[in-house]
Amino acid sequence: MFDFKGLVSALFINRAAEGVHDYKSATLMMAELPESDILQAQIEIVKALRQLNTNPDVSFKERSRAVPYLDEKARVLQRHLVNICEGSILDDKASPQQVLPTMLAFWREMGDAYRICIKQALQSNARGLEKTLHQFTLRAITYYGAHAKWCWLRYLDVETNAWRNLHKLYLYAEEGGYTDAPLAAWDGSPMTDVRGEYLQTLMLSLATPDKLQPRQIETVAHWLARWSGLVQIEKHIRPHHQLFAVNLAGSTPPKRLRRDMVGDNWRYWGTEALVRHMEEVRDELKRGANPLALSLPADAGTPGNVALLQQMINLWSQDVPQPIRKQERRVAEKKISVVRGLDHIAAFLRGQRPEDGLPLARWSVENESDGGMALVYRAVDDDKLQVGEVLCMAGFGNKPFTIGVVRRLNKTRDGQVHVGVEALTQTPVAVELTPLPGQRNITAIYAPDSLNPNHGRFIIVPEAYFAEEREFQLAAQGKAWRIKLTPAIELSSSAVLTRFNVLEKVAV
User: Could you tell me the superkingdom of the organism this chain comes from (predicted)?
Assistant: First the structure.
């Protein structure tokens, strides 16, 4: 079995005169690490990092050698775990659910390790460390940013300590005068700067990630990585030219600017240049421009991504008012039945129940309005609920069934899941679609009317079968029609809400 303890010892044995030593043996051990043991190796490294970070007796010289060396070796392991979590690598001994806590802990502990190095150097008034501290700051901010993004990808809140440390690091960079100085955080990495990396995390938090699908969060993060240079952080408030602010002495995320946000610890920024560029990109994509010519991924021109671009423009524009709640909420204490998945929803609508093998959950209602409800339940394992998922609920309003879609999602670390659901229709019908030319039937949900007046009549089809202008035979209640799908109203990772045109009635 691989000697994890030996690896940690090779990195962290404390000798008063020599500090960290035996890099050769540690390198050989890391090179021999079996792929199946990578998760356990990273767990041991996180433990060692945590021990190092909580040991105040380690000198700056020893710490500043240990942390970058361990970083260099552990980054390879972390990349493997990220690939597992993203689904590009399948590992029989490590599922995405198993590796996520270790991934998050590594980013947090490594960010802490660099931050402690910087703090220790500043306290000792050591000289000639400007480039080292610049690089350490950039790495720490990048690690805290990765931690925040992956929390949001799993609908977890970023902890207050992470925000506090992120703000402190930016303040260190300001005091050192290198917020805008370009630098590669690691050998072979692209040039970037502290301000840009810091702003990417701030702006991603302002994209309301609890209301986005994971792939949308990734897309927005990609845009910010390319366009954060269009945003400048300022020390002085200019309410008519700035939109957001953050308190560097606090432990909270950035917020929309208010006039009482004044003081030496506050920093401000406007988004005019960023929004103008996003509008130009949106217009180019609508005109059919090649996304690659705009330095964007090949799928950037899809209707869903163009709609997401417009959504971010609305969120970040000073000219667009903040959305207001349309319907009054009412406190409600009750349980409702919830069914997930189009096939299960169709079976539920047709009368199947738990005793027949149907998976049906009981969720608690926190509050409700005429247009939806706030629900809470305790997750079992990794239930993979996402924003955009379609649900069927029994117990909302005075109708037997309501089809809704998840609009907001937050998962606490103790397993509580808070869900905001918009009600779409209370007249759902389970139907069978046959792709034309004839193939095997698929299940869909038809809504003859909608609670949203903008939707009208619509149908929900599996995402894998959706294509604009695709023809199907729709069968329900002993009748059949040939239909053609129109552009999607909404897309999620599993289902598409779309309208359709009836081409003709078909004899059954």
Answer: Bacteria
C-alpha closest to that of 279 among 287, 269, 267: 287
Contact 418, 379 (CB under 8 A): no
Encode burial over 333-365: b for 16+ CB neighbours within 10 A, e otherwise.
eeebbbbbbbebbbbbbeeeeeeeeeebbebeb
**Among 195, 169, 199, residue whose Cα is nearest residue 183:** 195
Distance CA(1)–CA(383), nearest Å, equals 33
How many whole angstroms separate alpha carbon 286 and alpha carbon 276?
A: 15
Tens of pLDDT, residues 10-38: 544 443 333 333 334 345 545 555 555 78
Tokens standing for 200? 């990417």
What pLDDT does residue 35 have? 54
Q: Which of 182, 208, 179, 215 is nearest to 195 (CA)?
A: 179
Q: Is the separation of the CB atoms in 242 and 269 below 8 Å?
A: yes
Contact present, 144 and 201 (Cβ < 8 Å) = yes
Residue 380 has pLDDT above 90, yes or no: no
Lowest mean pLDDT across 87-96, 299-308, 345-354, 417-426: 87-96
How distant, in Å, are the alpha carbons of 60, 72, 77, 219, 365 from that of 19? Answer: 10, 18, 25, 43, 57
First to last CA, the chain: 66
- State the virtual CA torsion across 83, 86, 87, 89 in degrees, nearest 10: 0
Task: Name residue 203's amino acid.
Answer: M
Do residues 485 and 469 touch, judged by C-beta distance below 8 A? yes
What is the structure's pLDDT at 75?
Answer: 93
User: Phi/psi zone of residue 477: left (φ > 0), alpha (ψ -120 to 50 degrees), beta?
Assistant: left
Distance CA 214, CA 196 (A): 22
Residues 235-262 as b/e (b if ≥16 CB within 10 A, e otherwise) read: eebeeeebbbbbbbeeeebbeebeeebe
Peptide bond into 437 cis (omega under 30): yes
- 264: nearest Cα among 243, 237, 288: 237
Tell me: the pLDDT tens digits for 258-316?
989 999 999 999 999 999 999 999 999 999 999 999 888 888 888 889 999 999 999 99
Distances (CA, A) of 55 to 12, 16, 250, 408, 413: 12, 15, 25, 41, 27
**Per-residue pLDDT, 9:** 55
Structure confidence at residue 21 (pLDDT): 33
Using CA atoms, how far apart are residues 254 and 233, in angstroms rounded to an integer?
12
pLDDT above 60: residue 5: no
CB 364 within 8 A of CB 377: yes
- Token pair 């700035």 is found at 242
Task: Return the residue matching tokens 């952080």.
Answer: 233
Give the separation between CA 269 and CA 248, rounded to whole angstroms. Answer: 13
